[in-house]
Amino acid sequence: MRILIADDHTLFRDGLKSLLQVEGHEVVGEARNGREAIELARKVDPDVVLMDLAMPEMDGLTATRALLGEMPKVKVIILTASEDDSKLFEAIKSGAQGFLLKNLEAEDFFAMLDRASRGEPALTPNLARKLLLEFAKPADAASDADALTDREREVLELMVEGITTNRKLAKRLNVSENTVKFHVRNILDKLRLHSRAQAVGYALRKKIVDPDSGAP
């Protein structure tokens, strides 16, 4: 497995790199912050990125959203000392394949890494239970919609009009396609949805946007 490590602590990176190599994995890059992680991922095309949360310049959650918006096939696993449940929920909503604590036993860590390589969630039973309880809560459409920025609402309105491809959205908004991907990911995260079609249906059903708002 080709792995990129993103962590601002050199000693931790060195120790993790040695551990991974002993298990036969190839460490193809090391980044000190989220921005470096994205730049390196573009160059080395890793299978997995082990991403810390608290890093300078760009944190792990922001880097995860941006990286997966650009390289959706890469599997990002958050590897952190933070036991903040809200970070767990945000990480999974951002597209992370897993969320592991740094105090995990090596045997359990490699078992989770193997699961992630097969496309399965890399979560310990305790964190999986927390996640299930959180997502079992009924979504509040009003508060979810209120969380959208003006630009995100504009993107959602255009999708309701039938403009759904990144290229067409980018041209209409006069922004890059990567910026469009970022906005769409945020919309899906905030509305707790998984596709653009779901977002359009949800917007119409909950009357978040007016379907005639952009009509000529």
Brief digest:
The protein has 216 residues and is of the alpha/beta class. The protein has helices at residues 10-22, 34-44, 60-70, 85-93, 106-117, 125-135, 141-146, 150-161, 166-173, 177-191, 196-205, and strands at residues 2-6, 26-31, 48-51, 75-80, 98-101, 122-123. It folds into 2 domains: 2-135, Rossmann fold; 141-205, Orthogonal Bundle (Arc Repressor Mutant, subunit A).
> Which sequence of strands runs across the widest sheet?
2-1-3-4-5-6
Q: Spans with pLDDT under 50 lasting ≥5 residues?
A: none
How many separate domains? 2
Radius of gyration: 19 Å
Query: Which topology of the largest domain does CATH recognise?
Result: Rossmann fold
Sketch the topology as an H/E string, one letter per element: EHEHEHEHEHEHHHHHH
- Termini distance? 52 Å
Q: Count of helical segments? A: 11
Please state roughly what percent of the residues sit in beta strands, choosing from under 5%, 5-15%, 15-25%, 25-35%, 35-45% or over 45%: 5-15%
Task: Summarize the main sheet.
Answer: 6 strands, parallel
CATH H-level name of the largest domain... which superfamily? Response regulator
Q: Given the helix and strand composition, which structural class is it?
A: alpha/beta
State the CATH class of the largest domain: Alpha Beta
Mean pLDDT: 87
Could you say which overall geometry the principal axes of the C-alpha atoms support? globular
